[in-house]
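step=encode ok
step=design start
structure_in=
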């Protein structure tokens, strides 16, 4: 089962062999024996790729669950003093990861020298199951209820601009007034862009015509700081800029409901040692830092 799960997660026999520290011929033999034992094809092989079949995909999920339960059983027997070891993969939004998750990772590495960590700080949703990540820090509601999630705080969705821009162009008092302002859009949309606002407990859209569209949070914030226009950001992205007065919040009374920040994992209720240790540290430290980035 471990061999099969590793082949699927690494998408190849050679990569699985490297991870398990055996030869590719051993991986090939084990997989042939497993398929013969089960009487079903688990993988399809070409000269370049290895893909899992429908039957293999179902078996993969069962194998991973069973192996996770074995890890949990060993952890329970080994006691709380067992040392975390192995490879841990953590994912988070790029800027949030750099600002708030990396300090947790650094502390984790110092505490547990037998664990190596891969950090995937990306502005997209990483599928923990398909892509093999162990822990994710997610901002927003979770559509997938099969994941285990622990809330650690919330972030506000803000509109902000530089004092220089607001002095020159005025401060909008209602969302409809944005039509007369220069706006900065963080991501491109296929249709007409819009920002949503809250009034009397209900959300409603306001169409905008952004003069600047950018795919990164950092560049949108830099433009707002330079006085280009009004940008929509998350509170953690501009904590220092707001504290220094370099940016000011506008239309705060029309903000949408804050988004939850959650630490997410796929290991069931009893994660293995390396994951459990990181979860405990991340939940504690991110929760303690929440008042900084959610205000």
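sequence_out=
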């Amino acid at each position: 089962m471990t061999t099969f799960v590793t082949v699927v997660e690494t998408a190849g026999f050679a990569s699985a062999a490297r991870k398990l520290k055996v030869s590719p011929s051993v991986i090939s033999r084990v997989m042939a024996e497993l398929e013969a034992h089960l009487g079903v094809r688990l993988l399809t092989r070409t000269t370049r790729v290895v893909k899992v079949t429908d039957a293999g995909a179902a078996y993969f999920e069962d194998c991973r669950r069973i192996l996770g339960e074995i890890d949990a059983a060993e952890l329970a027997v080994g006691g709380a003093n067992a040392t975390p070891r192995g490879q841990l993969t953590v994912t988070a939004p790029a800027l949030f990861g750099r600002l708030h998750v990396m300090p947790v990772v650094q502390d984790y590495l110092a505490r547990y020298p037998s664990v190596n960590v891969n950090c995937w700080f990306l502005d997209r949703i990483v599928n923990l199951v398909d892509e093999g990540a162990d822990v994710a820090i997610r901002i927003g509601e979770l559509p997938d209820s099969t994941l285990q999630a622990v809330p650690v705080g919330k972030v506000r969705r803000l509109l902000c601009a530089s004092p220089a821009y607001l002095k020159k162009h005025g401060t909008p008092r209602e969302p409809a007034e944005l039509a007369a302002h220069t706006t900065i859009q963080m991501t491109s949309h296929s249709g007409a862009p819009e920002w949503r606002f809250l009034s009397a407990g209900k959300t409603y859209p306001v169409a905008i015509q952004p003069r600047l569209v950018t795919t990164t949070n950092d560049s949108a914030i830099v433009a707002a700081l330079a006085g280009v226009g009004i940008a929509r950001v998350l509170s953690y992205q501009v904590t220092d800029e707001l504290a220094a007065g370099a940016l000011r919040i506008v239309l705060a009374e029309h903000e949408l409901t804050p988004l939850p920040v959650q630490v997410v994992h796929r290991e069931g209720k009893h994660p293995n040692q390396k994951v459990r240790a990181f979860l405990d540290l991340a939940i504690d430290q991110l929760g303690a830092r929440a008042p900084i980035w959610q205000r």
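step=design ok
step=annotate ok -> The two ends are 47 Å apart (CA to CA).
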